[in-house]
Amino acid sequence: MTNLVWDWRNEIINYLEQEKLPEDSKASRALRAKAARYSFKGGHLYRKSFHGPLARCLGASKSNYVMREVHEWICVNHSRVDSLVLKLVWPGYYWPRIEEDAKAFVQKCDKCQHYALLVHQPAEQLHSVLYPWSSMKWGMDIFGPLSSAPALIPVEVGECTLRYFQASEEPNNEAMLVNLELLDECRNLAHIRMAAQKKKMERYYNRRANLRYLKVGDLVLRKVTQNTRELNAGKLGQTWEGPYRTSAVTGKGSYELENQDGEKLPSNWNVAHLKRYYC
């Protein structure tokens, strides 16, 4: 028997050393086929690799140590998942969940999360707002009246063009009364067209949406803006800052944040500027 703690290697080592097989016939047949690629030498399990040398098989504790050394200490470049897997497989390391473990390790790396790429996909579905009437617009008067002059300036047209027709006061008033009678119908048709246009825009926008929902107490990173960016950070500076904790949900895709000391941030933040933090 081997002196290793129980992990995925022990079943193969027991078969290679003592030819010990499971009682189930299917499991024993699968183990024999699997063990054909392994060899046990000098107290270590090795696996035959396709690119040449034997790959040393690692357990859970050793695999975490090797990933940390390659990702943070020896290479110090905090490579992404594909590059990290390549740097683990090529020198000759192996365990069954090497790609999945590398993905989880990079996902929880603090520096990788702070320097990660910005998320450009919409994080919330589009919520369109229809006007009460088709001809109304919402706005804000920030200037007020400019002067006491009348709003309309009469203009006398001296040169006539070919694109005109003669109209008298009486038929003009009759046409205006007819248009006023049809005004409600025109408004309803314009409202229907506007609602259809809004729905079409929502469908197009929501196809790209990658919904991200946060709960109270979740740890998040906040996008670094021009106001919060460090002085002289340049393009190599952090793209995310934090972590912060969500203290309340204030609306659709809007959250209230607080720092690790419990101090609330002065304003609410949209989910488009937030990203979940893994630790």
From TrEMBL:
Pfam families reported in the protein's UniProt record: Integrase_H2C2
Every Integrase zinc-binding domain range: 65-115
Originating gene: LOC107764018
Family annotation (Gene3D superfamilies): 1.10.340.70
InterPro entries in the record: Integrase_H2C2 (IPR041588)
Highest taxon listed in the record's lineage: Eukaryota
Protein name as it appears in the record: Integrase zinc-binding domain-containing protein
